[in-house]
Amino acid sequence: MSELSVDHLLGIKNLSTEDINLIFQTADQFKEVINRPIRKVPSLRDITIANLFFENSTRTRLSFELAEKRLSADTVNFSASSSSVSKGETLIDTVNNILSMKVDMVVMRHPNPGAAVFLSQNVDSTIVNAGDGAHEHPTQALLDAFSMREKHNDLKGKKVVIVGDILHSRVALSNIFCLQKLGAEVRVCGPTTLIPKYIHTLGVEVSHNLQESLEWCDVANMLRVQHERQDIKYFPSVREYTQQFGLTLPMLDSLKKDITIMHPGPINRGVEITSEVADSDYSIILNQVENGVAIRMAVLYLLASKKKMNFKG
Ligand code: CP
């Protein structure tokens, strides 16, 4: 297979396992490119990509921008806070105005779940979802699984626990879809109030015991508590949350095996994970960030080649 089955990257749910493996094989090649002295290829020369961020971001935004530059694309960046959105312009009008300046592809982060799907149905451009509310964050899940694959080779049969605020997490949902498509077993762990009631229908196990989940898993993906998406208190205090679901080095050292610790960032050091763990040999957090550029290069390249955009190959 040399072509994606989709025209946009809106989520992992509608990708096939073959799509994911094609993205990984392409990212393997781009990872080699970005580790060369000359880190640039001409593949997307003369293609213009707009990065529309209606919500804050450090990693995803810079990673997409670097991926675009490494592929020789032209880029324009848009922040909602400094745009005419604050004057009442709609999302469709905003994007159509940007597209009329001969933009070929749109990368968008938006606080509303479904915003990327909505855009793909209402404007004439290729859309890449860089995170839509608590719905999906497909490139994060791809870079997470790619990083696990580097460490553990085949993910088939591997046990992965996702710990923390599952209820408000787009990373959790995209990871569940991605890992299951690659044959991994997935468990979620956190306080009852932060685990969606329907989650078992996705075929994941549920646990409220971190120590027991660490004993079960090969990989633990630690998530931040997303206070900004919470309108009520889901647990009595941050201190209590940390006592029950915060990961410490003694917990890892007490296991009779080596497990891999991941975190999508941003980290709240001392809450869901201590600094000792984040900076330890158990952690592949910075490898995840590094792999994000290669994964995003692969996604942009494959979508552009599917649409045969003025393509340099
Ligand atoms: N992991 C992630 O999406 O980080 P940012 O919010 O900084 O992009």
UniProtKB/TrEMBL annotation:
Complex and partners: Heterododecamer (2C3:3R2) of six catalytic PyrB chains organized as two trimers (C3), and six regulatory PyrI chains organized as three dimers (R2).
Gene Ontology BP terms: 'de novo' pyrimidine nucleobase biosynthetic process; 'de novo' UMP biosynthetic process; amino acid metabolic process
Protein family membership: Belongs to the aspartate/ornithine carbamoyltransferase superfamily. ATCase family.
Domain of life: Bacteria
Catalytic activity: carbamoyl phosphate + L-aspartate = N-carbamoyl-L-aspartate + phosphate + H(+)
SUPFAM superfamilies in the cross-refs: Aspartate/ornithine carbamoyltransferase
Residue ranges occupied by any Aspartate/ornithine carbamoyltransferase carbamoyl-P binding domain in the UniProt entry: 8-150
Keyword terms, alphabetized: Pyrimidine biosynthesis, Transferase
Role played: Catalyzes the condensation of carbamoyl phosphate and aspartate to form carbamoyl aspartate and inorganic phosphate, the committed step in the de novo pyrimidine nucleotide biosynthesis pathway.
Record-listed L-aspartate binding positions: 87, 170, 224
Pathways involved: Pyrimidine metabolism; UMP biosynthesis via de novo pathway; (S)-dihydroorotate from bicarbonate: step 2/3
Organism whose genome encodes this protein: Owenweeksia hongkongensis (strain DSM 17368 / CIP 108786 / JCM 12287 / NRRL B-23963 / UST20020801)
UniProt domain Aspartate/ornithine carbamoyltransferase Asp/Orn-binding: residue ranges: 156-303
Name of the protein described by the UniProt record: Aspartate carbamoyltransferase
Gene3D superfamilies listed in its UniProt record: Aspartate/ornithine carbamoyltransferase (3.40.50.1370)
EC number: 2.1.3.2
Record flagged with keyword Transferase: yes
Binding site for carbamoyl phosphate: 59-60, 109, 137, 140, 265-266
